[in-house]
Amino acid sequence: MSEFLSLFSAMWKESWRDRIATFFSVAFPVMFLLIFGFIFGGSGESVKTAVVAVEYDLSDFGDVYLSLEEVEGYYHEVAVVERDRIVFIRNTTDEYYQSLLDSWEMSLKNKVERLLNGLNPVIVVKKKPLETTRQLAAFDYTLTGVIAISLLSIGLFGTVDVFSHYRERGFLKRLRATPVGNFSFVFGLVSARMAYGILSTTIIMILGVLLFKARYELNVPLFLLSVMSSVLCFIAFGALISILFKKSEVTTQVSIILFTIMMFLSGVYFPISFLPAYLRTVALFLPVKYGVEVIRYSLGFEIFPFTRYLFTVSIMFGAGLVFVFYTSSLILRKED
Fold first, then answer.
1. Which of 10, 53, 233, 234 could hold 81 in an S-S bridge, CB 3.0 to 4.6 Å?
2. Dihedral class, residue 137 (left if φ above 0, else alpha if ψ from -120 to 50, else beta)
């Protein structure tokens, strides 16, 4: 136990001493959170509309009032619907909602025309919101993406730094002369990185709440499981790079390139469906894609069957664990 605590303490301190890894793990994600948070204005608001109507039932288009004088509270747009005309009163100061309001106006106009002409719709679409999740807003996408990028950085750069730089400094060879076993060394590395990941995500989530009124339905056990499985998977990825490339400068450059590619192709900052078909295929092989999915699921932003969640985290955790110890044993064995 004392051996594990000593290794954990050493790896924990090493994590904070590496300025590049600390920048990409904490400062870089927080910087993105602040930039996107101020651009999208947080997730606490949604477009609010109301209609003033006497002749028609238009409750699907927002709050309904019988006269303009009765309108209470703030709305991005209010529509006064008379029998054969509609007067729109829009707040044009918030440009973020203008396209949504254009669509809302068109839908309202079409419905009033149908009612005026006595036409019944051929196809009726009924919306039934699910109680277990809520719609993913632009800032929610940013928040969960920032968390995933932070975990990727912690697992990838932290592992590459330990194995590559320790190998060049001869530390791994000296480690063989100590009673510390390979398992203890790797277990200390993995544990410290997981604790680092939990601390980093906690900082990001607190900043999201305090600065941008982020709201999430946090499932603590599932979130911790998502964080640990993601970090483990990314550590395995870093260990693989450390095997393929010997020099620390090369491994760092390769890691930065892969980090950048995964940041834009894994659904971190925008949906994968925006990508061309061939890049969507590439995304299926990137571990960050699955890390983002399970994090969004544990925060209530994503909905899919629970069995799919369990399957994904089981593969990430199990395969990551096996691969971490396998690749790490290969690296350490070569130093014998």
1. 53
2. beta
Is the distance from CB of 125 to CB of 277 less than 8 angstroms?
no
CA distances from 189 to 16, 26, 325 (A): 13, 18, 11
**pLDDT of 136 above 60:** no
Long-range contact set of residues 265-270: C-beta below 8 Å, sequence gap at least 24 = 266/148, 266/291, 266/292, 267/145, 267/292, 267/293, 268/145, 268/148, 268/149, 268/292, 269/36, 269/141, 269/142, 269/145, 270/141
In the block, residue with structure tokens 């009163």: 89
Rounded CA separation 174/53 (Å): 81
Min mean pLDDT across 81-95, 112-126, 179-193, 208-222 is at 112-126
| pLDDT value for 311 | 92
pLDDT of 146 > 80? The answer is yes
Only one residue has tokens 């096996």, namely: 322
DSSP annotation of 29:
H
